[in-house]
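[09:14] KT: can someone run the structure on this one? pasting the chain below
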Amino acid sequence: MIPACLRILALTPLVTVMLFCQDAWALQTHGGIEGVVVHQVAHIQYLGALGYLLWDIRRSGFAGVGWLYLQRFCWLMMIWNGLAFIGHLAQMNLSEDAVSTEDGYLSALLLLPVSFGRWLYYVTALDHLVITPALFFLFLAMRSFSRAAVSEKMEDGR
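[09:31] RB: done, structure tokens below
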């Protein structure tokens, strides 16, 4: 058992960061076209890797609910990659006056009139509605695999 003073000492950095945090300035814009091209190629590579993982899981015929959850994760992440790819293209085609960021980046507003390009940007900006369930399915898959490994270990120990 860890003494109470060591537990408090271990939590001190976390509490300090939470109490005294400031803006991280984590939003990075890419100057020129090179950064966007590399980012888009990364989406394509990730999409291909997820497609291969999905194909390999289905081909191998793994049984268990964890593998089903992992397949759902792959499908949703592939959809998310497609949405993000299209969203980046739509964002690049927006004019400077299409989005208002007067109150900061996190409170951006899409300005009227709504065209197909602006509508496409808006819809693809809702990609968190796909990635959140995807990550939840990944969590369920990992939990299922962990529980199966623990129960297998317990059976072997008897």
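[09:33] KT: thanks! Helices lie at 4-19, 34-60, 65-92, 116-124, 128-157.
[09:34] RB: yep, looked fine to me
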